[in-house]
Amino acid sequence: MSLVEVDGCVFDAEQLGVSNGYESLDPVGREAFVNHRHFDSAYREAVAERLIASWAGKLLARWPRRVFRIYRQIEPDEVTVRFHMVRPGVPNWCEDGIEILMVGGQEAEPFSPPTASINDDALEADASSA
Asked: pLDDT tens, 58-99?
């Protein structure tokens, strides 16, 4: 999984390759639309945690002075995660009712990646099928 910057937006390259219909949205909307994944397997929470940790690490490494929001929504049968860059004057994708993790910049709280307690092979298989 790699991240790319295109026209001032940061995207998960894999998701960008399979996304369409987002071009008319504002930058936050484009990123939140493209950069989202749904997980519905038995390992959904652990797989989502690994993706969040991967995104956070790559965002911090490549754009340490920018602030990003990673959202995690846990439903009974599905976990959805997404991210976007925070931009002055542009509303964020969501303000409440969902877990929001801040990554990068001076405003962000430190992010500590979670540790998975299940077999890494099972997580890899689940992530590749999502």
From this structure: 999 999 999 999 999 999 999 999 999 999 999 999 998 899
Residue 27 included in any domain: no
Within a domain: residue 3?
no
Q: Is residue 4 part of a domain?
A: no
Residue 14 forms part of a structural domain: no
With b for 16 or more beta-carbon neighbours within 10 A and e for fewer, the 44-71 pattern comes to: bbbbbbbbbbebbebbbeebeebbbbbb
Number of domains the chain contains: 1
Alpha-carbon distance of 90 to 87, in angstroms, equals 6
Tell me which residue range forms the domain holding 63: 37-129
List strands edge to edge, sheet with 99-103: 36-39, 79-85, 68-74, 99-103
